[in-house]
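TL;DR need structure tokens for one chain.
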Amino acid sequence: MNRLVVATQNQGKLVEIRELLADLPFEIGSLADLDQPVEIVEDADTFAGNAIKKAEAVVTLTGQPALADDSGLEVDILGGRPGVRSARYGGEGLDDGDRCQRLLTELFMVPDVRRAARFRCAMAYLEPDGAPRMFYGVLDGRIAVNPAGEHGFGYDPVFIPDGHERTLAELGPEVKNGISHRARALSAFARWLAARSAAD
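>> reply
TL;DR here they are.
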């Protein structure tokens, strides 16, 4: 079985990816499996730029195929913030709950009809001596007034996807893994991989 290294130390993200790619012929590892710590500075201006940077770093280090994504939350009334800085929103040292609270504070008194937002994912697949292949996913929704739910990670407790009245953290992995931005990007990757395998 081929090995695929996912460029993340986020265990919540790794669990999602393993579940969504369970039918593919890969043993899926992550940065946590490597013998030495890996620090990749995500300083690109776009999600795609950060995803490619992470994939290239992992391929260089391991010599194995890598899958890397950069994802974030864009809030319309905030001009697209936090965007590519979603994981660092509010400064260093904050956890997911702190970042969610910072967001809700910024949106205090903003009415529901003006709380439109979306999760965006750019995913890069890279093989040694190859060029990056990019896959994308978007999930539209709005920001809740208060956090709710115990599932997921990141901004899931404050994001209500279109067509639902509960947050992603309330809906749980069964629903999230069918509709999320990351699920959509991974689905595109899986379709591409299946088509390439069928053509070989």
